[in-house]
Automatic annotation (TrEMBL):
Reactions catalysed according to its record: L-arginine + H2O = urea + L-ornithine
Entries under InterPro entries matching the protein: Arginase, Ureohydrolase, Ureohydrolase_dom_sf, Ureohydrolase_Mn_BS
Required cofactor(s): Mn(2+)
Pathways involved: Nitrogen metabolism; urea cycle; L-ornithine and urea from L-arginine: step 1/1
Keywords: Arginine metabolism, Hydrolase, Manganese, Metal-binding
Keyword Hydrolase on entry: yes
Protein name: Arginase
Similarity field: Belongs to the arginase family.
PANTHER family with a match to the protein in the record: ARGINASE
GO MF terms, alphabetically ordered: arginase activity; manganese ion binding
C-alpha cells in the first residue's frame, strides 16, 4: 500500500494563458482522488497568483521571461511540500496547473535526493529545456528543465542554492515531437534520451519502459519522478491543452506507458499538468486526465 499526497497547484503563469488554474478543482470535483488500493491524502491547493491579476507584471521581473518573479515565489512552497511528502515516504502527486509546476516539484525531489539519485520520466510533446535565450515565447513552462540542469541564466539556475538539481542523463523524454532549435542542439550536445511520438507509435511500449527501467536500475537509482503532460496525447483525443502538437500518441498508449512506470514501484513523485478546461471539447481531455489519475492510483 502506497500513500499519495495530492498537492493542487493551480498555476497558469508559465504558459501565459488562462484555463490551467481550473484543473485541481475540476479533478477534485470529478472524484479523481479516491483509490481502492492506496491511501490518498488531499492536501488541497497551494496559493498561486492568477495571471489575470498581474498581467501588468508580465516582464517586470525579467525582460525575456514572463512572470519570472511570481513563478519563483510560488515554486518554493511547492518544493517544500514535495520534500515533506518524500520525507514521510509518501508519494507527492502534484496536480497543475501548467508545466512550470515542475520547476518546484522536481526541485523538491532534487533537494531531497541529490541530482545523481533520481530519474525523471518526462512524458510530453515538448522538451521544456529552452533557456531565456532560445525560447521563442518567453513562457517559462518551456524552460524550467534547463535551469534545474544548471543551464541558462545563473541567477535562475542557482535559485535553489544547489545546482544542478537534475542530471540530463537521468531524464527520459517520451513522446516529444516539438523541440525548438536550441533544444535540439542541447539534446545532441548532452546526448539526452528522447523517444519521439513517432518512435513510440512504432514501438512495443513494454520494451521501451523495460529498457528505461533497466538503465535507471543500472545507475543504482531508486526514485523516479513521473512528469505527465496531457499534450503528449494527440490533439484529436486531447484538445484541451495550451500548446497542442499534431502527430501525438493515442490515449491508450499514454495509459500503458504510465501503468508500466507505476508497476515498477520506483515512481515516488508525480506531476500531471497542462489540462486547460477552457480549450477542451466535450470534456474529452478532462476524461483523459481522469483516466491517468485512475491508473496512477490503481
Ligand atoms: Mn508540453
Amino acid at each position: 500500500m502506497k500513500t499519495f499526497d495530492v498537492i493542487g497547484y493551480p498555476i497558469n503563469l508559465g504558459c501565459d494563458k488562462d484555463g490551467n488554474e481550473l484543473t485541481p478543482s475540476i479533478l477534485r470535483r470529478d472524484g479523481c482522488y479516491t483509490s481502492a488500493k492506496h491511501h490518498v491524502n488531499d492536501l488541497g491547493d497551494l496559493p498561486c497568483t492568477p495571471r489575470a491579476a498581474i498581467i501588468e507584471e508580465k516582464f517586470a521581473s525579467h525582460p525575456k521571461i514572463k512572470y519570472l518573479k511570481p513563478i519563483l515565489t510560488a515554486s518554493r512552497p511547492l518544493a517544500e511540500r514535495v520534500m515533506h511528502s518524500i520525507a514521510q515516504q509518501h508519494i507527492p502527486l502534484c496536480v497543475g496547473g501548467d508545466h512550470v509546476m515542475a520547476f518546484g516539484s522536481i526541485a523538491g525531489v532534487g533537494l531531497t535526493k541529490g541530482a545523481d539519485n533520481f530519474a525523471v520520466i518526462y512524458i510530453d510533446a515538448h522538451g521544456d529545456f529552452n533557456t531565456e535565450i532560445t525560447s521563442g515565447t518567453g513562457n517559462m513552462h518551456g524552460m524550467h528543465l534547463s535551469y534545474l540542469m544548471g543551464y541558462g541564466e545563473a541567477d535562475i539556475a542557482n535559485f535553489w542554492g544547489v545546482s544542478p538539481l537534475l542530471k540530463p542523463q537521468n531524464i527520459y523524454f517520451l513522446g516529444a515531437r516539438a523541440l525548438d532549435p536550441g533544444e535540439i542542439e542541447m539534446a545532441a550536445k548532452l546526448n539526452m534520451y528522447i523517444r519521439s511520438s513517432e518512435q513510440l507509435n512504432a514501438s512495443d511500449p513494454a520494451e521501451v519502459i523495460v529498457d528505461i527501467l533497466s538503465d535507471i536500475k543500472r545507475k543504482g537509482i531508486d526514485h523516479i519522478h513521473l512528469s505527465f503532460d496531457v499534450d503528449v496525447i494527440d490533439p484529436e483525443y486531447a484538445p484541451g491543452t495550451g500548446v497542442p502538437e499534431k502527430k501525438g500518441i493515442p490515449p491508450a498508449l499514454a495509459y500503458t506507458l504510465i501503468r508500466l512506470c507505476m508497476q515498477s514501484d520506483l515512481v515516488k513523485s508525480v506531476d500531471i499538468v497542462e489540462l486547460n478546461a477552457n480549450l477542451d471539447q466535450g470534456r474529452i481531455t478532462e476524461r483523459a486526465m481522469q483516466q491517468v489519475l485512475k491508473i496512477i492510483l490503481e
